[in-house]
Design a protein that fits this description.
- The complex is a heterodimer of chains A (311) and B (308).
- Chain A has 5 helices and 10 strands, in the order αβββββαβαββαββα.
- Chain A has helices spanning 28-35, 124-137, 164-178, 205-212, 247-310, and strands spanning 57-61, 69-75, 78-84, 88-89, 101-108, 149-159, 188-195, 198-201, 222-230, 235-245.
- In chain A, strands 1, 2, 3, 4, 5 and 6 form a 6-stranded mixed beta sheet that branches. Chain A has a 4-stranded antiparallel beta sheet with strand order 8-7-9-10, sandwiched between helices.
- In chain A, a hairpin with a 2-residue loop joins strand 7 and strand 8.
- In chain A, helix 2 crosses helix 3.
- Chain B has one domain: Ribosomal Protein S5, domain 2 (2-Layer Sandwich).
- In chain B, 26% of the residues lie in helices and 30% in strands.
- Chain B has 5 helices and 14 strands.
- In chain B, strands 1, 2, 3, 4, 5 and 6 form a 6-stranded mixed beta sheet that branches. In chain B, strands 12-11-13-14 form a 4-stranded antiparallel beta sheet, with helices on both faces.
- The longest helix of chain B is centred in the last third of the chain and has 34 residues, at 264-297.
- The chains are: A alpha+beta (311), B alpha+beta (308).
- Strand 10 (235-245) of chain A pairs antiparallel with strand 14 of chain B.
Chain lengths: 311, 308
């Protein structure tokens, strides 16, 4: 990892103190038992198949005034900001590209993760997330409309509590729509963790961590899936899985994720429709104010005219 | 592929062929092109393999080093993948040109080998929490003729199967630090268990169907390909095959490549197809590797490649 020499970096081989706390030394089984109580309810009060898209979801646009379009998405503790900038010509390019390019960058805030502090230079995970985001967005943007141009999409993860790639894709889709970039469809994404043959829809960070840990028993399914979907066109634009799962598990997970992705769609649509309604009302208000001002000016004019005539 | 121009009619010809499960070079949709595999080709590496699949030529060397395990996984060893796209392969790789492709492939491998059911890192542990083996898997792409991911994963599995790790004879605890005595005898070493190591299968979507191991012409007909990592079956990799009746191959990673998208039904069919392809590939690889090892043990090894 390249070091940033302008900062004080601390000793090279330091590790966070919480590796030695009681919480951290718990075995796989203890952690697994803690995730879910006897009624099948997770730590944050959700059931296994309940995503955070309904009551723990908040999203808005117009976060960043300088950007062409921007969005902020919150899934309880996962908080993501995304901004989209105007297309600009690609510099120093050798050949003409008929399709526009997307440039995506995902960045974690240094304090975003509960386990380790994030370095300032982009690490391997951030690079992988950036590539994943670009792959998910490429099919949905009408790239043939801006040949030889590049569209910049920046995602900043303020707080990470699981499903950060899904949140980043959702935020980027909303920001692209807010920036009025021509798209074939709104893009939505959702992730799912499989731990010991149980499916946790929209996992938190603790659940994700356990899903990629290696179970002591062999032969059970565990892993993590993130899927991005274009709901109206019924197309999968990105699918990434790690861990080990058998075929049936993946098929089932695909169906569950598809349904969840469709559930997010109304949330996004509502925000976009509200934006249009608001801007219409704003327009009306402005027109009304303009008319009032004109009327006032005309009245003043009349007044002056009479004064001049009298004088 | 540079300089490849196909007319729309030729593309339709390929597409119709794929629909009928009969491709332009006579293969079915799950057939690979013939390949050449040779192990133990680099004398300074602990394990090595060279694979040639049509025009793709790959050389893999495994180096072992002693390292300290990560504090959150004290009982596990480490494995790292490095892909080097040399400018010999295609002029596009010159300078930093091949970097993105190389990162892509090494990320894919890292994710595929992440699960313990794919590759057991416990066998690399020397002393829990203190010392472990670290495997550096260096992948050199000598010639690039498409379908890199599959070829690389095959070559890596062959090289890991061929890797020997010296036995540790004695360990002395001296205060906090550990002292080892490794065996001097180069034949006194253990072989890695790489039977479950995953193979990556790239499925190229053409029309509604997918094909494995696409030729350059077929690649230009497709906008998206699916990469599926399937764990191997250890029974193909040992002579005294212990029959595990309900052994099931698992997916250790799935990813997508390319700018397109795919319908859910096509996606599901593709995964099933990938598992069938990976299974037959795994069986063939196992057979070839076992034969190679047999020859090695009898000192009757014939070398075929350019390296010897």
């Amino acid at each position: 990892m390249p070091l940033d020499y302008r900062r004080f970096n601390g000793p090279e081989d330091s590790i966070p103190y919480n590796y030695y706390t009681k919480e951290y030394l718990k075995s796989y089984h203890e952690l697994h038992r803690e995730l879910i109580d006897e009624n099948g309810v997770r730590k944050d009060g959700r059931t296994l198949d309940e995503a955070r898209s309904l009551c723990m979801f908040f999203a808005r646009t117009d976060m960043i005034s300088q950007a062409k379009g921007s969005a902020y998405i919150e899934l309880k503790k996962t908080k993501v900001v995304c901004s989209v900038f105007d297309p600009r010509e690609i510099m120093h390019q050798n050949e003409f590209s008929a399709l526009g390019q997307l440039f995506c960058e995902v960045k974690f805030a240094p304090f975003s993760c509960p386990r380790q502090r994030r370095p300032h230079a982009p690490d391997a995970e951030e690079k992988a997330l950036s590539v994943a985001l670009r792959k998910a967005l490429e099919p949905t943007v009408c790239r043939h409309l801006f040949p030889n141009y590049q569209l910049d999409i920046f995602v900043y993860i303020l707080e990470h509590d699981g499903a950060c790639l899904a949140a980043a894709i959702n935020a980027a889709g909303l920001a692209l729509a807010d920036a009025a970039v021509p798209m074939y469809d709104i893009i939505t994404a959702c992730s799912l963790a499989v731990i010991g043959d149980q499916m946790f829809v929209d996992p938190t960070e603790a659940e994700e961590n356990l899903a990629i840990m290696n179970p002591e028993k062999d032969g059970i399914n565990n892993g993590l899936i993130t899927m991005a979907v274009m709901p109206e066109l019924r197309q999968i634009s990105d699918f990434r899985q790690i861990g080990s799962m058998d075929v049936n598990c993946i098929m089932k997970a695909t169906e569950v994720l598809q349904k969840e992705c469709e559930k997010i769609l109304p949330n996004i649509q509502q925000i976009l429709v509200l934006n249009v309604v608001n801007s219409f009302e704003q327009q009306k208000q402005l027109e009304k104010e303009a008319k009032e001002r004109e009327a006032a000016l005309n009245a003043k004019m009349e007044e002056w005219k009479t004064l001049l005539n009298a004088g | 592929m540079a300089g490849l121009l196909l007319s729309p009619t030729e593309k339709i010809y390929i597409l119709h062929g794929v629909q009928d499960d009969y491709r332009s070079d006579g293969r079915t949709n799950i057939d690979y092109r013939p390949m050449e595999l040779e192990t133990d080709v680099v004398s300074h590496a602990s394990g090595s393999a060279r694979l040639r699949l049509a025009n793709t030529d790959i050389l893999v060397g495994v180096k072992t080093e002693i390292d300290v395990p990560k504090p959150d996984n004290p009982g596990l060893g480490k494995i790292d993948f490095f892909v080097d796209c040399s400018a010999n392969a295609t002029p596009e790789f010159e300078g930093r040109g091949g970097e993105q492709l190389a990162n892509n492939i090494s990320n894919m491998l890292q994710r595929a080998y992440n699960s313990s059911q794919a590759f057991d890192l416990k066998q690399l542990c020397i002393l829990e929490g203190k010392q472990c083996w670290k495997l550096y898997v260096d992948i050199l792409i000598l010639e690039c003729g498409g379908n890199l991911c599959d070829a690389v994963s095959l070559a890596v599995k062959a090289a890991l199967f061929n890797t020997r790790i010296p036995f540790v004879k004695a360990a002395l605890m001296d205060g906090g630090s550990v002292d080892f005595q490794l065996s001097d005898d180069p034949y006194d070493c253990k072989l890695l268990e790489a039977g479950t190591a995953p193979l990556l299968v790239t499925l190229c979507k053409i029309g509604d169907k997918c094909v494995v191991d696409p030729s350059a012409e077929e690649e230009s007909c497709s906008v998206i390909s699916l990469i599926v990592g399937i764990t191997g079956n250890p029974k193909y990799y040992s002579k005294d095959a212990i029959e595990t009746p309900n052994f099931k191959c698992k997916c250790s990673t799935i990813g997508m490549n390319g700018p397109g998208s795919v319908a859910p039904e096509t996606f599901k069919n593709a995964i099933n197809q990938g598992i069938i392809a990976a299974n037959s590939l795994d069986e063939a690889l196992g057979r070839a590797l076992l034969r190679e090892r047999q020859e090695c043990n009898n000192f009757k090894k014939n070398s075929y490649g350019f390296l010897k």
